[in-house]
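Before the break, one more example. Copy the sequence into your notebook; we will annotate it together after we see the structure.
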Amino acid sequence: MTIDDDYGDVVPLGDPPGAVLAGVHAGTGQAWALKVLPGRLDRRTRIDVEAELRRLAAAAGDAPIVVADRIVDLGDGRRALRRELCAQSLPELIEAFGPLSVEDTRALGAALAEALAAAGMPHGGVTPGNVLFRESGEPVLTDFGTALRRAFPPDPGHDSGFRAPETIRDGVLDESADRYGLGAVLFFALTGHSPFPSRPGEPDADHVLRVLTEPPPAVDRTDVPLDLAELVEGLLAKDPGQRPGDVAARLSDPAAAAGAPPLPGTPIIEFGPEKRRHLTRPPVLIASAVAALLAVVAVLLVLNRPRDMEIPPMDPPPSAARSSAPGPSQPAIQLELADPVDHGDKVDLSWTSNGTGLNFAITVAPEGRTSAYIEVRRETGYTVAVEPGIRYCFEVRAVDGVHLWVSAPKAIRGAVCGR
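Here is what the structure looks like once it is written out:
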């Protein structure tokens, strides 16, 4: 299952940087996500990993699961699992737009519960970072399997706010621990933080002790109904035997939580051979946001080849229109990047816009180097560290949740920035 492929210049995705990369296959031109393995695989672990991938591929079907299709050699001594490149993770979505609505949280939880049930094997690490969104807005779960987690166990404090007490204490990786992780993800979706966030200056050992001993706090939102709050609390129970197992039914039909028969015609997620899985209310915010970010990833993967400093043209994502040709329903937003101010080892960037409520990001394209994408949220200025003597191109992007605008690129040191 290992191949030696050329994925060109790769772009770090997510947090921590370098754990997952995005790269374009030189032969096919297809973009992939590459999850870098934490170390060399011994023969036994490799066999176990490949067996898990085969089982998952057979079980996935129409389930909301993203499965790695092979192990690849990155050419620098590292190996990676190659999988579908999705548009955004749950932490990225919430960081940009805040906690989810109750309806979207129910739909997300039901999809994740379905994924866990369909896999036929423990996930071993259900955390927000493993919850991804396709460009359509469809939520999927990735990074299944226990072989790698047992071969490369994390530090006790790593993701301890989302890991079950028995996993931290005894290394247990089973379905009940996955249900705890699901509860922690739902808590995160509703609040924007884990049930046990680290406190400023708190040692890892103290944080872990709180996870092991303290009851989880209540979801601090007045719009969360009692059945959903009780379900999240039950999934976060310290005793694995007390965690409910009928999660999808409870999320899809609130009456099921009270023991009543399901109500017909009120599914949170629609199923059917001709339908894609989707949230019952149109996920405009999610779909447009992930489409815009996927477009940014595409730019990063093709930007700034050493032989070409021009920023190549890019079609706008399906849910985002470009500022150059506003349509009837698109605001006439002006986005202008001022001339960069070059200080040798840093560059001051500033921009103006007549829009309100926009989130901004900067694309930094150095000649002969991998491009960078920097999210700056609501700021209208940023200082970028640069290498003296290297030519650079810059551009600014703005998103309002529905539309995408891109400034004209600006250059320093004689770079040619075309579009």
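The first helix runs from residue 43 to 60. The chain has three domains: 2-84, 88-269, 287-412. Try to locate both features in your own notes.
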